[in-house]
Amino acid sequence: MSKVSVIIPVYNVENYLRKCLDSVKNQTLSDLEIITVDDGSTDGSGKICDEYAACDSRFKVIHKINGGLASARLAGARAATGEYIVNADGDDYLEKDMIESLYDAASQNLCDVAICAFNRVLPDGSVRHVGYKLAGVYDRKRIEKEIIPFVVPGTDAEIFSPNVWTKLIKRELYLKNLVYYDETLSMSEDVVITVSNVINAGKLVYVDKPLYNYRITEGQMTAKYKPEYYDSEMTAEKSVIRAAADAGYDVSQQIKRRYVSFAFWQIKTAFSFLKDKTEIKRVVNKWSENKIYSDANTKGWTKKEKIKYFLLKNRNYLLLKLVCKHL
After folding, report:
1. What tens digit of pLDDT does each residue of 187-231 get?
2. Is position 187 within any domain?
3. pTM of the full predicted structure?
4. CA atoms within 13 Å, Cβ hemisphere of 197
5. Residue 260 belongs to domain spanning
């Protein structure tokens, strides 16, 4: 059994894939199982995966019909045999000591989860460091006191982002929590993975170094409205509530806060991307009519979050259009 299984979903990223695979192949911790999941790529990505597997026995390739990122992550997790699991995206890349740093921190402190900071790599090549409001080792008592009250990400109160690729997670724990995972998710699949595992971790450790490089491409700079995000977000939020409830925690107020931020982002995107006024109003009504965020306790919310909450509840189209430009 390898110390770490690295799961890399791959879909049409041939221009970036070699740098990603090289960054994993050349890690200072060599005891790895590297699982690339070709999710029905139509470019040369699948062949590149096969090429690396032919030259390095640590690489395993899964070729599958396109099912989306959540489906690809699940296929990789089911094939993993390592002590821990790390996820990486095929267009990103790792610092050479990322996996060793996280593995050493987790194993030396007997932790189920290790988290690191990361870099945002912008299209112009500039890099922005992103750290978290964490420090050191968290035992169960400290997790319950300092992390679980803020465990649902996506609000101004988040202490870490939901991305799964800055987390090293004990495989046994990871697989156990797949019961909350839906492979049809088109959005927020990483929130389900992150929250369910952090909530159920016995111990957690934070490594305050930017060890992962998240590449933002030109296409990602321009957000597009996607109607399927609504059902995906609803499914993800319900899964998070269920995972927390099964562990004995109520995160419903955190979910309300997240929903307001996510809904406002989708409405803002609709104003920017859609041209038909009737369609935009339909989007506004759909997100604002949902009862999931009703009766939210806004104590502790930022002024900006309270404004978003007020606008959603009142559904004033013209005011929303005006404010969306500034929030």
Report:
1. 899 999 999 999 999 999 999 999 999 999 876 645 678 889 999
2. yes
3. 0.94
4. 30
5. 251-324
Residues 21 and 108 in one domain: yes
Instruction: Say if strands 127-130 and 113-121 run parallel, antiparallel, or are unpaired.
Output: antiparallel
List the beta bridge partners of residue 39: 64
In a shared domain, residues 208 and 261: no
231, part of any domain: no
Q: Considering the chain, what percentage of its residues have pLDDT values greater than 70?
A: 98
Question: Residue 53: helix, strand or coil by DSSP?
Answer: helix
Alpha carbon distance 283, 274 (integer Å)? 10
Judge if 87 and 19 occupy the same domain: yes
- Alpha helical stretches, state H, 57-123: 69-79, 98-108
In-domain check, residue 32: yes
**Helices and strands (H and E) in the chain: how many:** 13, 10
Amino acid 223: pLDDT: 60
What is the C-alpha separation between 173 and 37, in angstroms, rounded? 21
Q: Return the pLDDT at 325.
A: 75
Tell whether 201 and 276 lie within a shared domain.
no
Domain boundary (221, 240, 259) is at: 221
Least confident span in 3-12, 71-80, 90-99, 316-325: 316-325
Whether 245 is in a domain gets the answer no
Note the Cα 197 to chain centre separation in Å: 12
Average pLDDT over residues 87-105: 98
Are both 122 and 184 inside the same structural domain?
Answer: yes
3-class secondary-structure state, position 100? helix
pLDDT (tens digit, 9 = 90+) per residue, 132-176?
Answer: 999 999 999 999 999 999 999 888 888 988 899 999 999 999 999
Q: Which two tokens stand for residue 93?
A: 């890349």
